[in-house]
Amino acid sequence: MLHNKTIAELSADLHAGEYSSEHLTRIFLARIEQFNPQLNALVTVTAEQALADARVADARLKAGTAGPLTGIPLVQKDIFCTKGVKTSCGSRMLDNFIAPYDATTVAKLRDAGMVMVGKANMDEFAMGSSNETSFYGPVKNPWDTAAVPGGSSGGSAAAVAARLAPVATGTDTGGSIRQPAALCGITGIKPTYGRVSRYGMIAFASSLDQGGPMARTAEDCALVLRAMSGFDERDSTSVDMPVPDYRATLNDSIQGLKIGLPKEYFGEGLDAQVAQVIDDAIKQYRALGAEVVEISLPNTQLAVPTYYVVAPAECSSNLSRFDGVRFGYRCENPHDLLDLYKRSRGEGFGPEVKRRIMIGTYALSAGYYDAYYIKAQQLRRLISDDFIQAFKQVDVIMGPTSPTVAFNIGEKVADPVTMYLSDIYTIAVNLAGLPGMSIPAGFVGKRPVGLQLIGNYFAEARLLNVAHKYQQATDWHGRVPPGLE
Amino acid sequence: MALSKSDVEKIAHLARLEINDADIPLYANNLTNILSFVEQMSAVDTTGVEPMAHPLAASQRLRPDIVTETNQRELFQSIAPQVEAGLYLVPKVIE
Question: B16 vs A338: CB contact, 8 Å cut-off?
């Protein structure tokens, strides 16, 4: 069953000439045709271009100029601009938008020889934790179709879990890679802010947004993250630092690794059965030779309120570009310029995006700026300092990715604040700009549980190593959703 | 604090968002809940704490002042709602 193989395995087969990339691509396209109608994970399928790209990859494989990702199928989150292909960002506003250029991540993965088979559904403009804010309707969780896949990269996570592609890209502003990875039982990494270029990645909150890979194993994430990362002069906050070979250190020893467990991540609000799965995972790490210490991140409770000032403030500014003038949705028969702006935006954006734009507008308006925006930035410093202190004592921080397993579709839509709290363990990592990961660690009933790993700045190699060691000793990452074997 | 109908109308106007009258009470309720939730922030004494705008304490780099982009007006305007003679069209602003 080729669709159950990892990128590392598929790549070895392609290089050995066991089968062609075209053959592999057809297998995934057939699975997309079979399963996507019920999952709604992809909003665009690029079959024709994929087969053409696969044939180019096959020529490179024959010529001996192929790399480790050449010929491997890939799904791009629909937040990444793809030249000549619709890039909707899950919004009616961009339902007619054919991107005129490629995001840096898209170009880099294509240059590495990867074959894009389609674009993933997502919460509108990446604002959501359940994929229910998408203009194209919710994504179903492959483990239980009554459940959400998480968000905002819910389509990406569902596509990987359902074996519609071996890997997908995601973006993470407050947990949007890690939380859906956890809820869909896959592996995802949000790198350090600045590691992956934001050029051509439609902006939500620019000081928090970061792209990264979502795949089934840490090894696969290592391969794809290396290809995505690197300095980009087109992103003003891109970091100019060499990109390590993340795969080379996957098997490094974790004997004596110091794991910190923040006591605030195990308190009220954490589901007891999820807590049990996380405890078992920590026991496994002890068995692998790690030391576990309790730590404190005292400002944890402030992370979600702080985020819901910082992120909406940045979003209200970023989304002002959607004005019905240059691209995207325009209302019918505007009677003047103000009407053109207001109705194009009012009709083009969904309710969650409008709420966040209005919160941001309010927080930045005269008389409220200091009480909300400056205050939130000061708290951001305190939250960030908590991590700096913690990493003086420990190598890696661990805890649950999400306080519960996947909730039911419709369960939290009526109450935005309840929905926001599902990101309580992931949001602080974005405020600090640190790298974070989620790996499969077990189940509660049919629904997967994710273990979160948080590293120090630019410690992606260490995180992937620590995740890989766990995956060598367990098989949670190898489980396949029922009916999708 | 609870946002009134006119508060929501004012914010929506500042944000250039048309909100249907029928939806205003729901937005007022949602926004009030979100603002009361973030209100927890004010309980913390942040005197003397330097605001953090960005995770990496780097200043913006400057690039050499040389031309790096070519004109792609036709490509970019091919996806615009309404253009004429290389210009974007909007409803008449000045009579």
Answer: yes
Round to whole Å and give the CA distance between A175 and A181: 10
Average per-residue pLDDT for chain A: 97
A8: CB partners within 8 A, 6+ apart: A68, A217, A219, A220, A223
H or E, element range at B77: helix B73-77
CA angle A227, A251, A182 (to 5 degrees): 65
By residue range, what is the domain housing residue A25? 2-255
- Domain endpoint, select from A377, A394, A424: A377
- Classify B5 as helix, strand or coil: helix
Question: Which of B37, B31, B36, B40 lies closest to A379 in space, CA to CA?
Answer: B40
Which residues from B are below 8 Å from A379, CB to CB?
Answer: 41, 44, 46
pLDDT tens, position by position, A268-282: 899 999 999 999 999
Q: Catalytic site residues of A?
A: 77, 152, 176
Question: In this complex, is the C-beta atom of A361 within 8 Å of any C-beta atom belonging to chain B?
Answer: yes
Chain A partners within 8 Å of B61 (Cβ): 236
Report how far apart, in Å, the C-alpha atoms of A421 and of each of A129, A174, A229, A427, A453 are.
9, 11, 30, 10, 19
B contact residues 12-71, partner A, Cβ 8 Å cutoff: 12-20, 23, 27, 30-31, 33-35, 37-42, 44, 46, 49-56, 58, 60-61, 63
Residue B61 pLDDT > 90: no
Number of structural domains found in chain A: 2
Residues A367 and B42: beta-carbon distance below 8 Å: no
ipTM surpasses cut 0.90: yes
| pLDDT reported for residue B69 | 87
Tell me: do A57 and A155 sit in the same domain: yes
pLDDT tens-place string over residues A185-241: 999 999 999 999 999 999 999 999 999 999 999 999 999 999 999 999 999 999 999
Do the Cβ atoms of A160 and A186 come closer than 8 Å?
yes
Q: Where are the domains of chain B?
A: 5-42
> What is the mean predicted confidence (pLDDT) over A367-377?
95
Classify residue A210: in a domain, yes or no: yes
All residues of chain A having their beta carbon less than 8 Å from the beta carbon of residue B56 are 193-194, 237, 239, 433
Q: Cβ of B53 and A377 within 8 Å?
A: yes
The reply to whether residue B46 touches residue A327, judged by beta carbons under 8 angstroms, is no
Tell whether A472 is covered by a domain. Answer: no
Question: What CATH number is associated with residue A117?
Answer: 3.90.1300.10
Let me know if domain B5-42 sits in CATH 1.10.20.
yes
